[in-house]
Please model this.
Amino acid sequence: MALLLVLKAGLLAALYAGLLVYALVHLLAPWLARRLGSQSARLVAVAALGSLIVIALTAGIWAMWSFFLSDAGSLPVLLKKLADLIDGSRSQVPPWLATHLPQSAEALQQTLTSWMRAHAAQATHIGQETGRVLVHILIGMVIGAMAALYDTTQVHRFRPLAAALHQRIVRLHLAFRQIVFAQVRIAAINALFTGIFLVVALPMAGVHLPFVKTIILLTFLAGLLPVIGNLISNTVIVIVSLSHSLGIALVSLLFLIVIHKLEYFLNAKIIGTQINARAWELLTAMLAMEALFGVPGVIAAPVFYAYVKTELSAAGVV
Model:
């Protein structure tokens, strides 16, 4: 019931942030414990570890935000680069499509400004939601660090209700950790296939696209985000390919469709191996959760399904 309420209340980002810090502290705390003898030393070390993890994750979010506010990542600079790519692709697309492409970076910026004015309410809502989610993530990380500090440095003498609740959290944490490690493997495989296509296959055909290293890095980082990450990296690859020729853009699109169809089942296989679930089980869970909760449901499905199956297995029902 609590997990369903998390989805309904929009607290999935906070939950995942807390579980991430909790999992990292639990992963590194035993290494510290073996090197520190006294209880007080372990307490200080784990507290410092939790603080460092929260600071590092917060600094990473702040660095990304600062980049988009800097000269290198500012909107005018990004629009200029995007306009250059669009201008290079103008001669490669049909005339009826070329007439709808912006003529310059200023025209592109004007188009976006007009769209934002027409959708001011939606844009304001998105901005408010972004700030709200960032605050939730920060609070979730602090809660995760505090919970991990207590869990790794205290001797537990739980009464029945507290013991049952603690067991639920432990199993949810294990399910989350299995899924996260599997998602990192998936992102690495995705970046590897993309790198082979951009660095090996296309150059062998005499095609050299710009920003290859950036695209591969973006593919890996975006791959850490289920579903939406692939959409981001795929869009960038197709736009950059279009600046070379329409044929290369179509080849890139075909490659992405084929490779991601294969990866869709590979992802289910990798994650399924981690949580002892078959591919069709995970795909069914993702489909059902998407129908009920949209994109957040897809993101939550692997972890929630892994947790539910762990509980059912522990009860001896499945």
